[in-house]
Automatic annotation (TrEMBL):
<dbReference type="GO" id="GO:0008726">
    <property type="term" value="F:alkanesulfonate monooxygenase activity"/>
</dbReference>
<comment type="similarity">
    <text>Belongs to the SsuD family.</text>
</comment>
<dbReference type="InterPro" id="IPR011251">
    <property type="entry name" value="Luciferase-like_dom"/>
</dbReference>
<dbReference type="Pfam" id="PF00296">
    <property type="entry name" value="Bac_luciferase"/>
</dbReference>
<comment type="function">
    <text>Catalyzes the desulfonation of aliphatic sulfonates.</text>
</comment>
<keyword id="KW-0288">FMN</keyword>
<dbReference type="InterPro" id="IPR019911">
    <property type="entry name" value="Alkanesulphonate_mOase_FMN-dep"/>
</dbReference>
<keyword id="KW-0503">Monooxygenase</keyword>
<dbReference type="GO" id="GO:0046306">
    <property type="term" value="P:alkanesulfonate catabolic process"/>
</dbReference>
<dbReference type="InterPro" id="IPR036661">
    <property type="entry name" value="Luciferase-like_sf"/>
</dbReference>
<keyword id="KW-0285">Flavoprotein</keyword>
<feature type="domain" description="Luciferase-like">
    <location>
        <begin position="8"/>
        <end position="329"/>
    </location>
</feature>
<keyword id="KW-0560">Oxidoreductase</keyword>
<dbReference type="InterPro" id="IPR050172">
    <property type="entry name" value="SsuD_RutA_monooxygenase"/>
</dbReference>
<protein>
    <recommendedName>
        <fullName>Alkanesulfonate monooxygenase</fullName>
        <ecNumber>1.14.14.5</ecNumber>
    </recommendedName>
</protein>
Length: 384
C-alpha cells in the first residue's frame, strides 16, 4: 500500500438524462442543454476540476456537448470519448485540436473501445473483442503523432494514412488519455498507450488486484500508469439518511426490468468489466451491499458503473482513503439527480477530504436568512 496523496474529484454530465428514480419516468429530466449547463456551471463553481461526458447510442454527443459547455465555464476540464473504429484517427485528431483550442487547454480524452456488440454493429463496428483493441492501438499511434504535430504515413491492419497532418495544433502538448478495460487485451492497451487507467467501483481487494495487474504490464513496457475509479455517490449527513435515499432511488425498479437488464449485460455484451459489475450482486436485491458502504443497487438496471458509496461524509471519506491507499488518485463521481448530488458531495464530503479549499465563499460578515444578524446587539455579538 502507498501513502494517500492528492486527490482529483471529477463529476459527471448526464447526457442520457437524469432523475430522482431509476427505472421510472417519474421526476425525470431530459438531457437538455440548459440543464446540462446548470450542472457544468455548478460543479465548476463548487471546485470539481473536471467532468466526464459519457458516450453511446443513448447519449448526446460528448464532443458537441463539451464544446457547448466550455464557453459557459471557467476552469472545468472536459473528459470526452475517443472512439476507435467509430471515427477515423485523423478526424478525431482534428476534433481534438479544435476542442482543445476552443476550451483553452481544458480537454481530456477517454478512450472507449468496448461496449455492447449490438450497439457497435449499429455504428458499423463488427470486429470481435480482442481485435477491437488491436485496432485501437493503431488508432492511438496515428492520433498521437498527428496531435503532436508530426506528418503521418502509416499502413497497418486496420488503417492506412498517407501524409496526414494537422495545420492547427492543440493548446496542450499532451492531452491526457484516460481508459477503462478489465480484459487482458484492454490492460495491454493501457500499459502501452494511456496515462490514466480507470476501474469501476469494485470492492477494494478486487480493485487492488486489477491495479496490480495493470501496473505490472506497464512496468514491462517501461511505463507508469495513474489510476482512477468511477463511482456513484449518495452522501447525507447521517448513515440512516443516506441508506434511505439509496432505497428510494431503486424503489420503482420492477423485477422484470432487472431481469431484462441483467440478461443484456451478461448475454449481449462482451465487456469483462460489465460482467464483473453484474456478478457483484447477481441481479438480486438482497445482495446489494458488496463492501463497506459500497452498494450495487445502481447496477441492477444501469450499464457501466453500477456501484455507489453510500453513507455519511465521514464513512465515505474513509472508504475513499482506502482506495487511495492502493493507488487511486482520481475519482469520477456521479449521483441522482446530478445537480443536487454535486452540491451534497461538495458541501458535505469535500471538507472531509480536504478538497474545495479554493472555492469562492461568502464572507462571514454577510448577513442573510441563514445566519444570525448582530445588528447593534452587542450582547448577541459577544455571545458569538
Amino acid at each position: 500500500m502507498t501513502q494517500p496523496g492528492p486527490l482529483d474529484f471529477f463529476w459527471f454530465i448526464p447526457t442520457h438524462g437524469d432523475g430522482s428514480y431509476l427505472g421510472s419516468e417519474r421526476q425525470q429530466r431530459p438531457p437538455e442543454h440548459d440543464y446540462l449547463r446548470e450542472i457544468a456551471q455548478a460543479v465548476d463553481r463548487l471546485g470539481f476540476p473536471g467532468v466526464l461526458l459519457p458516450t453511446g447510442q443513448s447519449c448526446e454527443d460528448s464532443w458537441i456537448t463539451a464544446a457547448g459547455l466550455a464557453s459557459h465555464t471557467e476552469r472545468l476540464k472536459f473528459l470526452v470519448a475517443l472512439r476507435p473504429g467509430v471515427t477515423s484517427p485523423v478526424f478525431a485528431a482534428r476534433q481534438t485540436a479544435a476542442l482543445d483550442r476552443l476550451s483553452n487547454g481544458r480537454l481530456l480524452l477517454n478512450v472507449v473501445v468496448g461496449g455492447n456488440p449490438k450497439e457497435l454493429a449499429g455504428d458499423g463496428v463488427f470486429l470481435p473483442h480482442d481485435q477491437r483493441y488491436e485496432q485501437a492501438a493503431e488508432f492511438l499511434k496515428i492520433w498521437r503523432d498527428l496531435v503532436s504535430g508530426r506528418t503521418v504515413n502509416f499502413e497497418g491492419q486496420h488503417y492506412r494514412v498517407e501524409n496526414g497532418r494537422l495545420d492547427l495544433l492543440p493548446v496542450q502538448e499532451h492531452a491526457p488519455l484516460y481508459f477503462g478495460g478489465s480484459s487482458d487485451a484492454g490492460q495491454d492497451l493501457a500499459a502501452e498507450q494511456v496515462d490514466m487507467y480507470l476501474t469501476w467501483g469494485e470492492p477494494v481487494a478486487q480493485v487492488a488486484e486489477k491495479i496490480e495487474r495493470a501496473r505490472k504490464k506497464a512496468t514491462l513496457k517501461g511505463r507508469k500508469l495513474r489510476f482512477g475509479i468511477r463511482l456513484h455517490f449518495i452522501v447525507r449527513e447521517t448513515e440512516d439518511e443516506a441508506w434511505a435515499a439509496a432505497d428510494r432511488l431503486i424503489s420503482r425498479i420492477t423485477d422484470e426490468q432487472i431481469e431484462v437488464a441483467q440478461a443484456r449485460f451478461l448475454k449481449e455484451m462482451d465487456s469483462v468489466g460489465q460482467r464483473r459489475m453484474a456478478e457483484l450482486h447477481g441481479g438480486r436485491r438482497d445482495r446489494l451491499l458488496v463492501g463497506p458502504n459500497l452498494w450495487a443497487g445502481v447496477g441492477l438496471v444501469r450499464g457501466g458503473a453500477g456501484t455507489a458509496l453510500v453513507g455519511s461524509p465521514q464513512s465515505i471519506a474513509a472508504r475513499i482513503r482506502e482506495y487511495q491507499a492502493i493507488g487511486i488518485d482520481t475519482v469520477i463521481g456521479s449521483g441522482y439527480p446530478h445537480l443536487e448530488e454535486a452540491y451534497r458531495v461538495a458541501e458535505l464530503l469535500f471538507p472531509e477530504l480536504g478538497l474545495g479549499e479554493n472555492v469562492r465563499r461568502p464572507r462571514r460578515s454577510i448577513e442573510n436568512e441563514f445566519g444570525i444578524g448582530f445588528y447593534g446587539d452587542k450582547r448577541l455579538q459577544a455571545a458569538s
